[in-house]
Amino acid sequence: MPRTSMTLNRETHLISVSDDVVRIRQIARAWCVELKFSLVDQTKFVTAASELARNTLEHGGGGRMSAEIVENGARRGLKLVFQDNGPGISDLELALKDGYTTGGGMGLGLSGSKRLVNEFDIKSEPGQGTTVTIVRWK
């Protein structure tokens, strides 16, 4: 039976103003450095975290991000969970397509974030908010 991941350290941060997006980037970078991620892996993970924090603020009306250092067997990694109580996403398949946007951007936010991490999970229902979980393994 495969081992389940174990949380080694955890903290939660609110996302309610644009300065919080910058703070989330800084936190993600610091935890990546602590885990000794390569510069490329740091950049990928921080970019995904920044996009998801901005989505939490702009589309979800704010929310929170939980950061966890996790371990699964010999692997250690960083897990971020973004949660909001916003309007939710009615069509997840469409929202994950490159080029789809509701905010006037390039439409690479969710799909791009998914490509930048090792694990990506999204749960959303109209009127119930959205939760996005990302993991990057060392």
Structure description:
The chain is an alpha+beta fold. Helices cover 36% and strands 33% of the residues. The protein contains four helices and five strands; from the N terminus they run E-H-H-E-E-H-H-E-E. A five-stranded antiparallel sheet has the order 1-2-3-5-4, covered by helices on one side. Strand 2 and strand 3 (75-84) form a beta hairpin. Helix 1 runs antiparallel to helix 2.
Q: Which structural category fits the helices and strands? A: alpha+beta
Kindly report the spatial arrangement of strands forming the biggest sheet: 1-2-3-5-4
What is the first-to-last residue Cα distance? Answer: 22 Å
Largest β sheet strand count, sense and barrel closure: 5 strands, antiparallel
- The Rg value, from CA coordinates, equals 14 Å
- List unreliable stretches of 5+ residues: none
Number of strands: 5
Sum up the overall morphology in one term. Answer: globular
Indicate the percent of residues in helices. Answer: 25-40%
Q: How large a portion of the residues is in β-strands, by DSSP E?
A: 25-35%
Order of helices and strands: EHHEEHHEE
Arithmetic mean pLDDT? 89
- Helical element count? 4
Protein name: Anti-sigma regulatory factor
Pfam families: HATPase_c
Domain Histidine kinase/HSP90-like ATPase: 40-138
InterPro entries: HATPase_C_sf, HATPase_dom
